[in-house]
């Protein structure tokens, strides 16, 4: 090996090991030492250079730290890279935390992007009838708030939320104001709860299939996820999971569930709460869809049935008014609200004020209830239109789960062996999108399933979307005989 | 020890160990087994009961899991608690993550609370002249946005931010739109950066004293913090810190710094960047106060001097318009924007839309620049008023750091041995508040120092606040001879 001939000066004010470093860097830069070459053993090199072994060891360690050398146990130290010129872009990639490496899954982003792509008729992202957004009322109330207290929207505000909005929600749920915290959407709620409760390696039980955001948030926090089949709702299965995994908590969306549309009957709710009480496992209830029932109010929430002891309640205005407002709330005991506020303070200090002040007026004036009533009816109509279109065009190709009694989702299954991700590729080319099933499973099964959000499309758009989807199957018929085949029930 | 007399039934469908559990729980509940009692050794108890040792071991383990028993190695298994009745509130405390335990410091909340307490003249929280908030213009632009595109504020929006606002910021900083990300305030920016870059145990170098929020956010993410004296700005000290701790990054607020008001001269900026480049350490530049110069523009940002290679830039509208808007931005290369967006997606999906759309119009119409100009002049006047009042009333009691040339803070020091936390107790009673020094130190020194935000008080309020503070020292004079004493320079 061509050793670089270095002159080290023991009279210099620069330490010997840094002089050696500089010499080695030059040798690496000019190619005398090429990537992959092995450096001499510390002892040998020290002898050659007439310096102490410590000097050589320090220099090697320094260059290992700078990323230029790499030690291989028992094999020696190797040149591993050419140093980047100071002009070169910095390799940020090497700095990324393991936490972020755990979440490098773009499923959520794809849903959002497809929900906003004007070329697509999108059943993908989950949002309500935005076309019904109460523009006039919202504009009036916003102006009212700004006229009355414009500078209030610029001031610091409490991390727990604007007192008026907390009070309005507290009154609706018959809890104290101190038990309510405003969050920037249910996603922030889940994220604060995860930060507050999950330590790396903690087990979490959640509904299966379940909300993709919850899966990704809990996983990012370091949780091991275990799914409980929400539609079977077998207490035996739940007890087995609790005993086996000793979960930090159970997370569930029991009403008009995302993604299946399923609603847990009161009997199932009570047995879930019984198990939670027996094993002292807290329950996170994501109840984001409650206000979106079509005809009859859903069963009492877990929070209500449990009296708020073991259950932490989470909801949002996104599924009635629209996700752009980023306003949701948590109901919990004051101790937990305090802990969640400590985390939120370090996440974004507090939720912006104008939206909260307007929403307070929106609730107080009765406009929220009126709008929810309107949305409920229209979502019911759109749900009917979707099931009717699907039955007419695709009953042999996609088997749908029972029609939900509220919410914004329908859940379906493709015939055996046909993957929804493959269908989605064809569908996007045909100008229509949906959610693929596997993103809703913590164990990445569900590849034959699919989720449709019917709430934000007019009946004629729904019909057109379903027709476009039909075309994807036509092309398939020659190779995959799916049409006309009797399909398994979902 | 009175062993509970249990009848276990091997013909029952309930496993033997669960029967034993139930019996032990009853015994604990009725006091037969009191907290602190030792249970018999597994082998002995199995013999007594005529069951296998496994049954006893399983029952003990189950009750350890339920929190009723606690094993002590070599000493046996003890009753550690009375089981709570199902009606009792759940002990959420035991579920809190270690991450949250790391951040149980209310310093930030105290600053906010004191900033909003109407009984106080508060120099505590850091915000600009809210009384100048451009109410009329903001109301007009909000109405304009709602009239033009009300439903846009309800829709899903990109995690990276509204394209219009990104474009406006990109144009100002002469970068591409893809390099800009909108965040819900600088606090969210720091929090996303921390989640993206910090692994537990990573070293981070930051300015000392420095922003309390940064200290708490980095610490919550698991970083070990090492302070670099921002006012000395000694490159030798920085190089020592880099070599000793190999930091993941350096975070610094180089312009009108929080809390000292200090601005790093261009020479110091260049030596900092030289070291960062030599050791390949990225730099997070928090530049939240740049637009708040009083007369002359501050030196070029680190981002500008470095050409955006090693520097990630963060700023906010909070220090010109007010913190209630929760709008800030990050400028970085596209790879980092992607990573940060992945984290933000799991934090709150995206920042609410109305504020972004209004801010876009606010910038485009020139109203932002006009307002910044107004705020700059007024902040300069209030800074003069503050220094003048302090000189008149408290020059012997509080030694102030040099008057800043922008921003919203003044930094001071009390005579030796007098703690600012003690002064604050008296001050709050007297109706005035400030920030205590130690919260701005990662090593909790600085207890004799204090931070004043002068920007949100009218000159007459400043004078009154300083007078109230003077009273706190009067009471002290008999026991602590601080007045008239020559004080060390800060």
Largest sheet of chain A: 7 strands, mixed
- Strand order, biggest sheet of chain A? 4-10-9-8-7-5-6
Q: How many extended strands of chain A?
A: 15
Give the C-alpha Rg of chain A: 29 Å
Q: How many helical stretches of chain A?
A: 17
- Assembly form of the protein: homodimer
Name the biggest interface: A-B, 99 and 99 residues
Helix content of chain A: 40-55%
What spatial form of chain A do the alpha-carbon principal axes imply?
elongated
Low-confidence stretches of chain A: 477-490
- The proportion of strand residues of chain A reads 5-15%
Mean pLDDT of chain A: 89
Structural class of chain A: alpha/beta
| Gap from first CA to last CA of chain A | 68 Å
Essential attributes:
alpha/beta, 490 residues, four-stranded antiparallel β-sheet, disordered C terminus, homodimer, seven-stranded mixed β-sheet, 17 helices
Structure in words:
A seven-stranded mixed sheet of chain A has the order 4-10-9-8-7-5-6, sandwiched between helices. A four-stranded antiparallel sheet of chain A has the order 11-12-15-14. A two-stranded antiparallel ribbon of chain A has the order 1-2. In chain A, helix 15 (367-394) runs parallel beside helix 17 (459-476). Chain A is built from 17 helices and 15 strands. The longest helix of chain A has 28 residues, at 367-394. In chain A, 50% of the residues are buried. Chain A has helices at residues 16-29, 42-49, 53-65, 98-102, 107-116, 135-149, 163-173, 186-197, 212-220, 235-245, 266-278, 302-306, 334-348, 353-364, 367-394, 420-430, 459-476; strands at residues 69-72, 76-79, 121-122, 180-183, 203-208, 224-229, 249-252, 283-286, 311-316, 328-331, 399-400, 409-413, 432-433, 435-436, 449-453. Chain A is an alpha/beta fold. At the A-B interface, helix 4, helix 5, helix 6, helix 8 and helix 9 of A face helix 4, helix 5, helix 6, helix 8 and helix 9 of B.
